[in-house]
Amino acid sequence: MIKVSVVGASGYSGIYLIYALSLRQDVSLSFITSQSFAGKKISEAFPLFAKSRFGKNQVSSLSFIYYDEEAIASSSDIVFFCLPHGESSKLIPNILKKNNKIKIVDIGADYRFDDLKTYEEFYGEHNSSNELNSQFVYGLGDIFYEKIKNSQFVANPGCYPTGALLPLLPLFFKHVIDLENPVIINALSGISGAGRGLKLPNLFCEVENSVKAYNVWSHRHLPEIKEKITAALLANSKREEGISLKVLFTPHMIPVTRGILTTIYLKLKDGISERDIFAAYNDFYNGSPFVSILENAAGCDIKNVIYSNNCHIALETGKNKGEEGFLKIFSVIDNLGKGASLQAVQNMNLMFNLEPDFGIAGYSPFP
After folding, report:
1. Per-block average pLDDT, block size 10, for the chain (367 residues)?
2. Residue 319 neighbours by CB under 8 Å, 6+ apart
3. Annotated catalytic residue: which of 82, 159, 300, 311?
4. How many angstroms separate the CA atoms of 78 and 359, rounded?
5. Of the residues 237, 277, 316, 352, which has the fewest C-beta atoms closer than 10 A?
6. Is pTM, for the whole model, over 0.90?
7. Known catalytic residue at 205
8. CATH topology for 160-336?
């Protein structure tokens, strides 16, 4: 049995993570923490976890506790941190002092950046454990799986970066993009991406029958996307050094509960065809249990991936005069699944030398 604790378990990502883990016969939930629900049974706070729903692996009697470092460190093989930015880096160093073998997956932003100055600039927080940062592997499991397999610490990507980087990184690794032109990313996300906290702009009455852009020049996920793209450019070649990477990213909120549709516009290098792009994707994601390359954009629909850890990618190249060489890429993910909790479970599987899709459920009634 893999002994698991979840810190910050009552947010959307935490609850969906518990749901996914509760279906596993190889996982034992040791502790789940919550400031607001401490002392309550999980089935009382979230009737989703009523006794009759989960067969042998019962969690209905499990209660939320306040954060207890000693107990968690002594009774866990792995801890998932589902906390607001700036919080997990305060707690992780101390828990490692009590158990330096414990594995960590941070679903927050504290360890996603190679450059901590960028993190501190965009999040307005100081990483309280700078010395640990270099030990965290970026947890985009379908791309960095070999590194994740050998890591004790994984930083789960943000939801928008997951939807953008899965279609983009293979093309940057292959050096087929004309960097003299900007990469333009438009992303539309369901309301759950903003979290469970009560915020006026996210109330249903404010969002219903509307679509709006927000944080159009300052969204915190833009530097995360740029940093990982830049690393991919330089991974196998120095020929792109000195080029100023231009990425324009605009997030939008749409009146659905979950899901992200990402549309990417870019210019290909001369001589690169649509067939070359399909070949690059099929080669890169050959054998991937979660990433599918679709034959046309019409099938790239949020409803086909919600409640899953899947990412669907489609593409079309410009065919009319003046459009040749331009590429439109479309991707869809579930922001709570592939964009958070289920990708975290995928990373756990890799860290314990399991198949990446082992025990990952394809559907959930969780809203």
Report:
1. 95 92 92 94 88 62 93 97 92 95 96 90 80 94 95 97 97 92 96 71 77 90 94 71 82 93 96 91 92 92 94 90 87 96 97 96 56
2. none
3. 159
4. 16
5. 237
6. yes
7. no
8. Dihydrodipicolinate Reductase; domain 2 (3.30.360)
Superfamily of domain 2-134: NAD(P)-binding Rossmann-like Domain (3.40.50.720)
CA terminus-to-terminus distance, the chain: 28
At 367 the pLDDT is: 46
Residue ranges of domains in the chain: 2-134, 160-336
Residue 49 to residues 53, 136, 187: CA-CA distances in angstroms? Answer: 7, 32, 32
- The predicted structure's pLDDT at residue 57: 60
Contacts within 8 Å (CB) and 24+ apart, 26-29: 26/1, 26/2, 26/359, 27/1, 27/2, 27/57, 27/359, 28/1, 28/2, 28/3, 28/4, 29/4, 29/5, 29/59, 29/62
**Nearest-angstrom CA–CA distance, 223 and 70:** 35
The three state secondary structure string of the chain is CEEEEEECCCCHHHHHHHHHHHCCCCEEEEEEECCCCCCCEHHHHCHHHCHHHCCCCCCCCCEEECCCHHHHHHCCCEEEECCCCCCHHHHHHHHHHHCCCCEEEECCCCCCCCCHHHHHHHHCCCCCCHHHHCCEEECCCCCCHHHHHCCCEEECCCHHHHHHHHHHHHHHHCCCECCCCCEEEEEEECHHHHCCCCCHHHCHHHHCCCCEECCCCCCCHHHHHHHHHHHHHHHCCCCCCCCCCCEEEEEEECCCCCCEEEEEEEEECCCCCHHHHHHHHHHHCCCCCCEEECCCHHHCCHHHCCCCCCEEEEEEECCCCCCCCEEEEEEEECCCHHHHHHHHHHHHHHHCCCCCCCCCCCCCCCC
User: Cα(81)–Cα(40) distance, rounded to whole angstroms?
Assistant: 20
Identical fold for domains 2-134 and 160-336, yes or no, is no
Give the pLDDT score at 240: 59
